[in-house]
Amino acid sequence: MTKAFPAVDLGGVTRQVLADSPELMVVSFRFSKDAEGALHNHPHVQSTYVKTGRFAFTIGETTTEIGPGDSFVIPSGATHGCVCLEDGELIDCFTPRRDDFL
């Protein structure tokens, strides 16, 4: 069993690794209203679950408003990012693990 790592303040966004193994990582991202997850891409497949809050989430050329209970998968290499519309938390899973978060 893995213990959660300390939270990292990224300025409006707090990231905390909740669990990891070489094959999978679970991460909590807590956003303040108007905070952004800048557009980016990575080789990992990502699954996102909206625990709380509202977000404008962009994948590729499509932006969708999402809220509590919504979930989706982001393919490897897809450009994505978000803007927080009201304080909230996203739970992301990455496969394989994001070693850059350790």
Automatic annotation (TrEMBL):
Domain of life where this protein originates: Bacteria
Database matches in CDD domains: cupin_KdgF (cd02238)
UniProt domain Cupin type-2: residue ranges: 30-89
InterPro entries, A to Z: Bacilysin_H2HPP_isomerase (IPR052535), Cupin_2 (IPR013096), KdgF (IPR025499), RmlC-like_jellyroll (IPR014710), RmlC_Cupin_sf (IPR011051)
Stored SUPFAM superfamilies: RmlC-like cupins (SSF51182)
Record PANTHER family: H2HPP ISOMERASE
Protein name in UniProt: Cupin domain-containing protein
